[in-house]
Design a protein that fits this description.
GO molecular function, one term: methyltransferase activity
CATH topology: Elongation Factor Tu (Ef-tu), domain 3
Largest sheet: 7 strands, antiparallel
Distance between the termini: 37 Å
Keywords: Methyltransferase, S-adenosyl-L-methionine, Transferase
Helix content: under 10%
GO biological process, one term: methylation
Radius of gyration: 17 Å
InterPro entries: TrmO-like_N, YaeB-like, YaeB-like_sf, YaeB_N_sf
Oligomer: single chain
Pfam family, one: TrmO_N
CATH class: Mainly Beta
Structural class: mainly beta
Length: 160
């Protein structure tokens, strides 16, 4: 893959998590910290505690550019699910290798943002943090095929 345009993004924080290995499932109940880099002013977090959930954009730093897969494939390589294109998957095999998650905010303590249910491993670079606004959620009815629900039935179960 040879992108026509690339961008550089600053790392604003890193994840501190008990999970150090990538896993397809069992992210429920995982408590982590998003720790701002020292160069980030503390007042960038002012008012964040007023929200219940965050939107966190992070880089799949353990993935390799060789992991990118352009084209259609079956989700989790399960032949029971029809092949779907690159932009139907939500994993590290996408071109930018960026993840988005919506963890619950527990508290803010200095430059540490304590959260639950962030599906990122220890050391993950964070590119952006924003409060989750209901007004920016989906408008209208949401629909999807059956396979995501089947595939993710263990995703938010507690770690084993």
């Amino acid at each position: 893959m040879s992108p026509q345009q690339t961008i550089a993004l600053p790392v604003i924080a890193h994840v501190v998590s008990p999970r150090s290995e990538v896993s397809d499932d069992y992210w429920g109940g995982v408590q982590s910290i998003i720790r701002l880099v020292p160069e980030m002013p503390l007042d960038t977090l002012e008012g964040l505690e007023d929200f219940s959930h965050l939107e966190v954009v992070f880089h799949f730093h353990l993935a390799s550019p060789a992991d990118v897969h352009l084209g259609a494939r079956s989700p989790r390589n399960n032949p029971a699910w029809s092949p779907t294109g690159t932009f139907v998957h939500r994993n590290h095999r996408r071109p930018a290798q960026i993840g988005i998650s919506h963890p619950r905010l527990i508290k803010v303590e200095g430059r540490d943002i304590h959260i639950e249910d962030l599906d990122a491993v220890n050391g993950t670079p964070v590119i952006d943090i924003a409060p989750y606004f209901l007004e920016f959620g989906p408008r209208g009815a949401v629909h999807e095929p059956a396979w995501p629900r089947e595939m993710l039935q263990e995703y938010w179960n507690p770690s084993r």
